[in-house]
Amino acid sequence: MFFELVLFGLTAGFVAGFFGLGGGTILTPILVVAGFSMKEAISISIMQMVFSSIYGSYLNSKKAKEVFKEGIILGIGGSLGGLMNSFVHSLVSNLFLQYLFIFIVLLSIIKIFVSPAEPKVAVKQHNKVVLILVGFIVGVIAMSIGVGGAIMLIPLLVGVMKYPLKTATSLSLFFVIFSSLAGFFSLTVTGQMLFYEGSIIGIASLIGVFFGIKIKNRTGAKNYKKSILIMNTLILGIMVYKTI
């Protein structure tokens, strides 16, 4: 299954770079369809996100330095929330996590659809306590379903905090560094991390990240929004098919 894992990594990496999602949003359902249990897919996805989020944020840093200060604050909250994922896993079933994943993706589609790709109002600074709280809640839920949190964070950044969509995706990928590292630590300590599969997919994802960010920077805002909606709809369809 080595070559399949490499292909999964390339796909997840491209998604991480282009959409700012960390890659887990697409990788988790792919792994579930490939035969992994939901909890196995989550552990692999989290390890992949460590690779793709760090490299992707490095590539994004030249164009989005101004938002990384708030990203660090969000990330602190996300790290605290991500540490809770092994505890959440001990309380709920695989099926519950799959339904939660579907619900989160559906909400994301609705919020992004009704939000403009380029808001007319200027981005304001936000209260640090609010940012930490938002990061914590996103971190708890996201790491429990094997995504970095971007699929929840992007609609909040665009629809509530009025960030431009491309800036929001860069910031969300930076957030994923914190949440995925916390989730990786949590699952490693409890013996739930699949290192072999996660390493292969994570290393392969670096190539996909490079090309994903390159293409994102050349895509117009309206077409970029359409791409995110199409991608989320496909993910929703895959998980609904596998779950129901």
From TrEMBL:
According to UniProt, the name of this protein is Probable membrane transporter protein
| Gene Ontology cellular component list | plasma membrane
Q: Which domain of life is it from?
A: Bacteria
Membrane topology reported for the UniProt record? Multi-pass membrane protein
The entry's family comment says: Belongs to the 4-toluene sulfonate uptake permease (TSUP) (TC 2.A.102) family.
List locations, semicolon-separated.
Cell membrane; Membrane
Q: Does the keyword Transmembrane helix apply?
A: yes
Q: Which organism is it from?
A: Halarcobacter ebronensis
Q: Where are the transmembrane segments?
A: 6-34, 41-59, 71-88, 95-114, 129-158, 170-187, 193-212
Alphabetized, the UniProt keywords read:
Cell membrane, Membrane, Transmembrane, Transmembrane helix
